[in-house]
Write a structure and sequence with these properties.
With 182 residues, the chain is of the alpha+beta class. It contains 3 helices and 12 strands; from the N terminus they run H-E-E-E-E-E-E-E-H-E-E-E-E-H-E. Strand 1 and strand 2 (50-53) form a beta hairpin.
Length: 182
């Protein structure tokens, strides 16, 4: 702090110093936000003698309806609906496949996360999140990869994929859509 001077001039100097500090801080914050600091940059083409890296394009949105209030907006290319139907009392399931590749999705009633998690067997289970909701991912007892989560209060969901589509499991689960406000 600047000490007070005998003529009462110290407060003016403090105010000027505070204003200058505020201005410098504002310029730094503005500079950081406008520079794009911290944002991921896409890698494209050849740079400084490094081999070309292909730019990944987002997957094409192909809505795949599982039930009237539950649909998947991303499926790996080449899959077509090969089964599905209603589950009583309010659930539904769907299967999309092509050869030995498949995606199965199911939505069903679930009282709460703890009871729903115990109902489905997930081998080598590990906790994760699906769009901010608690989930468990692992292997299905009959083969393939599985992710189980509580989509909203009273509604549980799971997606199972073949081993060949194991890397796509999280992307498929993240693409699930439901009614607004859930």
């Amino acid at each position: 702090m600047i000490p007070e001077e005998p003529g009462g001039i110290g407060q003016g100097r403090r105010a000027a110093l505070a204003g200058l500090a505020f201005g410098v801080a504002a310029l730094i914050v503005y500079g950081l936000f406008s520079s794009g600091f911290g944002r991921p940059r896409p890698v494209a083409g050849v740079a400084a003698g490094v081999a070309a890296v292909p730019v990944q394009t987002p997957p094409e949105a192909i809505p795949a309806v599982v039930s009237h209030d539950f649909w998947i907006t991303y499926l790996p290319a080449g899959l077509a609906r090969s089964g599905g139907g209603a589950i009583k009392p309010r659930g539904a399931w769907a299967r999309f496949s092509s050869g030995d590749r498949y995606v199965e999705a199911q939505v069903e009633p679930a009282a709460d996360w703890a009871s729903y998690r115990r109902r489905d067997t997930v081998l080598d289970a590990r906790a994760t999140l699906v769009r901010g909701r608690p989930a468990v991912a692992g292997r299905h007892p009959n083969g393939g990869r599985l992710i189980v989560w509580l989509e909203r209060a009273g509604t549980g969901a799971w997606i199972r994929v073949s081993e060949s589509l194991g890397r796509e499991l999280v992307a498929i689960a993240a693409s699930v859509k439901g009614p607004v406000g859930d």
